[in-house]
Amino acid sequence: MAPAPPATLRPGPWQWLRRELFGSRLDGLISIALLGFLVAAALGLARWALFQAQWAVISANSTLFAVGRYPLEQQWRLWLLTTLLALATGLSWGLLRALPRSGSSGPPPILWPRNDRWAAAILVLLALWLPLALQLTLAIQLRWWAITALLLLARWAAGRWGQALPPLVRRLIPLIWPLLYLVGMVLISGGLGLVQVAPSDWGGLLLTLLMASFAILLCFPLGVLLALGRRSTLPLLRWGSLLYIEFIRGAPLITLLFLGQNILGFLLPGGLAPDRVWRAAWVLTFFAAAYVAEAVRSGLAAVPAGQLEAARSLGLSMPFALIHVVLPQAMRVALPATVGQFITLLQDTTLLSLIGLLDLLGTARTVMANPAFLGRNAEVYLVLAVLFWCCCAALGLGSRALETRLNPNLAPSR
Amino acid sequence: MTTPAAVMIEARGVEKWYPNGFHALRGVDLTVHQGEVVVIMGPSGSGKSTFLRTFNALEDFQQGSIEVDGIPLSDDLRQIDAVRREVGMVFQQFNLFPHLSVLENLTLAPVLVRKLPKQAVQRRALELLDRVGIAEQAHKYPGQLSGGQQQRVAIARSLCMEPRVMLFDEPTSALDPEMVQEVLEVMQGLAQDGMTMVVVTHEVRFARQVAHRVVLMDGGMVVEIAPPEQFFSNPQHERSKQFLRQIG
Fold this sequence. Notes:
The complex is a heterodimer. Chain A is an all-alpha fold. Chain A contains 17 helices and no strands. Chain A has two domains: about 70-95 and about 110-195, no CATH class; about 195-414, MetI-like fold (Orthogonal Bundle), CATH 1.10.3720.10. Chain A has helices at about 15-20, 25-50, 55-60, 60-65, 75-100, 115-135, 140-160, 165-170, 175-190, 205-230, 235-250, 255-265, 275-300, 305-315, 320-350, 360-370, 375-405. In chain A, helix 10 (about 205-230) packs antiparallel against helix 16 (about 360-370). The two termini of chain A are about 20 Å apart. Chain B has a single domain, classed as P-loop containing nucleotide triphosphate hydrolases (Rossmann fold, 3-Layer(aba) Sandwich), CATH 3.40.50.300. Chain B contains nine helices and ten strands. Helices cover about 40% and strands about 25% of the residues of chain B. The longest helix of chain B has 16 residues, at about 175-190. At the A-B interface, helix 14 and helix 15 of A face helix 2, strand 6, helix 3 and helix 5 of B.
């Protein structure tokens, strides 16, 4: 058996605190000053949030913030979509835990690892507290609680019985998400027997998330193609990709958004960009694709040339070699930068309010312009910031989980 | 050595210039018969690796002709892919796929290229791993193996495609000295089983014991082709003698 590491390597919390914060007299002074500042700031914020702020502006407009002017009698479609999303999230989460990486022979998975218990606890607390804090009607409160319960139930069931699934079903399960996306588009916009809801009626968080997810989903494959094009040996392809990437990266997004409103109507085939919302979505997509392309290019450059040679000398065709050998390795390198780009993209959707769309920020501006809520800017902006932070944190957490899963050197089989 | 059977690789007057104008191959001829083991030696920069890599079109050439198993190498991508399916290659740097387990490294190409059922390929892959002595590592990742083990996996990966010819490009040059032998033993076993092999290497002992013929290249040309016993004890060319003095 290996000797135990010396005790100084793993100090107790008290020792750690003393060493890190009060190592010398100067350290102690700086620590106390900073702590005092932090406490004062926290107290100030708490006093404002509890006694001065008037949160009625949020609770009175919560529907507006959530879905904009989406017709009330059609909102059941959004509830259905939310339910489906919760179900899919729970199932995917559970399966991710139940099924270890292919090829690894680690210990059997734990049904509820510690991080998952934390996540579930936070989720339950939020689901209990938020509807109450927003003073939603009892019926709607009950709906949120039911949806949360469904999510956790799906998580539990998938974690419990996921391993018993036949391999074919397992491989088909990721397809839930693109399918759900299509179903979601139909539910939101109408068609197939549902009443049409014009994009100009979408708003708030719904519009923000829709724009961001549309752009994220489409800019990724587009960016990969551009990155491959930029490294192509065909001059036309290489120069075309280079020109595109450099043009997009050289222009500010807001200019492109205004430009897109005016010219996308001629550029894209009819029906793809019928109105301002879709034109903006395409501009976001094309914009982000150029940046994703640069991230992927750095990943491609990190894959040794011998990998492609080895794949090709085994008889793999170029597409197979790229898909199965080069891109998986390139994406592992490019993933952090790519997700960073996705997060930026999510935040960039706030620019839509400048071209007159009612995304989260646009909705917030209309709310603050309402004479009934004059001067309540701080409350609105704070909630907006927290909402964006939550979305971005979720993206970041997801990407970190993916990174760990993609990295064979961290695989549990070691 | 008995009278060799069918011709497996036929290279005639191969000339190659690199894009920067360097004349890497200057009219190289070589015929490799089925079941034959040919070792190519030569100083660095002599064009031996470049020549080997023309056999599966990892390098192109401007003049001359190469036929592998009766298929002429041309710019036709389908013919290049057909040749690559029949020619296994082992690299100096192993070039295992680090994101796939050892077993997946072996099964990837047969499943994708030969469209064989996964179960059968896995069974053969495990047999091959057993043959190269690393069956118990099948579910590890390449980064968890030693250099010698990685190179043996690389050999098994090529064999899993059931190639008709195996090319080795300095397979032991990147290995720690104590791991060279385990790789050479696998290669020797392969030769005894009758595999056609072309090996670029500096391992004199391997060349002496396993090769049917030794080729010495220098300056992009073939200097001498001879059976090993003759090449090492009684070389015919002044350049060969000089080379043997340098490495001996």
